[in-house]
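Sample intake sheet
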Amino acid sequence: MTSTVPTAVHHTDAQPPITMAGPDFPYAYDDYLAHPAGLGQIPATEHGAEVAVIGGGLSGLVTAYELLRMGLRPVVYEADRIGGRLRTVGFDGCDPGLTAELGAMRFPPSSTALGHYIGLTGLETRPFPNPLAPGTPSTVVDLKGTTHYARTAEDLPPVFREVMDAWNTCLEEGADFSAMNRALRERDVPRIRQIWSKLVEKLDNQTFYGFLCDSPAFASFRHREIFGQVGFGTGGWDTDFPNSILEILRVVYTEADDHHRAIVGGSQQLPQRLWERSPEKLTHWPAGTSLASLHEGTPRPAVTRLHRTAGNRITVTDASGAIRTYRAAVFTAQSWLLLSKIACDESLFPIDHWTALERTHYMESSKLFVPVDRPFWLDEATDDQGRPTGRDTMSMTLTDRMTRGTYLLDDGPDRPAVICLSYTWCDDSLKWLPLSPEERMEVMLASLREIYPKVDIRKHLIGGPVTVSWENEPWFMGAFKANLPGHYRYQRRLFTHFMQDRLPADRRGIFLAGDDISWTAGWAEGAVQTALNAVWGVLRHFGGTTDPTNPGPGDLFDELAPVELPEN
C-alpha cells in the first residue's frame, strides 16, 4: 500500500516475495513448513509423552498443534481464553457477525509462516483499510487543526512529500535500506549478515528519534514532528521514538507495515481452528484426534507455579491445585508473568536469561470500537449550501488529537458496520486508562466532531462500545514488547534459548516462545516463528531428528545465528 509517508520500495510482479524471517535470523520458516518431509520425527518410544504448553495464544496453539502431529501429547494451560492477543469480540445485542478486533487486526503478506496456518485452517483475508491504502476510499490527515482530505498521497500538500523523501533518504544513508530489502527478497544470507552485523554494532544504542535527528535529511523539526504524527504504513510512529531504531528497521526492511490484510470473520478464529482441527497426517494418534479432543474441550487452567523436580523435570501447578510433572514444557505466555503471577524457581533459567526477562520493555495500547447501522461514511458530503462536494462524508483519519487513528470497517453498503474510533499506543493509550468505555466514547466523539462538524456519528450507533487497554489486562500487562536502546543482547538471549545444548544440563527442558521472544514483537509472525523454534527444541529434547532434506531452525543455527555483541 501507499502510506502518507510510504516506504521506499514499490512492488512489481517481477520482484520475489519477501518474508519477515530476517535480518537477525534469516531462516526460511515458510519453506520448512511447506516441505513434504514435515518438521521432524520423534522416536516411537516417546510417542504419547506429555509436554506442557503454557499459554493458549497463537504461539501456544502452533506449538501444541505441531507437537500433536509428531506424536507427543501437548497439555495446554490457558488462564483466560483460546486466542491470546488474537481477540475478536462481538457487540451486545448486535448480529454475532459484527465483530471488533481488540488485538491483532492486520497482517502483512511478509508474514509467510503465519500465512501457512491461515491457509491450512481455510481462513480468508481481505485488504485492511489503512491510511491511503488502495482499498481505502479516502483518508483525512488532521494536524494542528488543519484537515487534509486525500484519496492518494499525491492529494496531500507538498510538505508530506518532503517528509516522505526525508524518510527514504534517512533509510538509504543510515541503514542501507535498498540493499537489505533486496538481500531479504533474494534470501541472500551472506549479504544480509554482512549488512546487519555492521548496523547492530553501530545502532544498538540508538533511539528511533536519535536516528532521525542524526540524518541531515531530517534537520527540520517540523518534518520530524509530521513524521511522528503521520508516520509510515499504519500511521503515526512518535510513540516509538524512544525505542531502539533496530526495532523499526526490522519492520521497514521486511515491509511488515505494508500491504496489510484482515482475516475475514476475525483473527481469533486462527488459534481456535488450530485447537479444534484434526491434522491430516498424524503420528501415533488415531485419525480425528485434535487438541480439543485430547483436552475434552477445555484447556487446563492458569499456571500458578513452575519448578524443577527430581530428574530435571518441569513440575506445573495450576489454579485448580492440580500438579503435573513433565519432561519438557514450552512457555508462550507474556514474559512478565514469570516474574509476577507465576511462582517460579530460579533454577528454571540461567541467570542471564532472568535478567533479559526482567529488562523486557512492553508498549501500552488501547482501542475502542462502536457498531453502526451502515457504512454512512461512504455517503457523499455536501457543503454549507447543500451542494455535493465529491468527498466522502467521513474518512480513515490520522490526527494529533486524542483519537490518533480512526478506522472504518464494513462488509458492504447495506450491512451494519464498525468504527474503530481510536487506536493508540504508549502515553496516548494511558490517557484513556482511567475512563470507562462510555466516557472514552464521549471524548472520542467530541474529538472527531472537531474534524467532521457536520457528521453525527451518534445517530448511527446501534450498540454500546467495546474497548481494551492491554496494559490493564491482568494476563498481558501490555500490548507487545518493544526493545529499548541497548536491549539487543537481552533479545538475543531470549530468542536463542531454544538451542539448549548450549545451556547447562540442569537448565534445560523448558522452552520460551511467543512474539515477545521473537525479533518481531507485536507481529503474529514472531509468535509463529518462535513456536517453530520451540517445537524443534522439544523434538531434539526427546531424541528426535529432522529430515536431511528439510533442516529445522536449530540445524542451521550456526550459519544463521544472530550477531553476538561483546558483553564487556
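Comment: The two ends are 43 Å apart (CA to CA). Confidence is low (pLDDT under 50) at residues 1-14.
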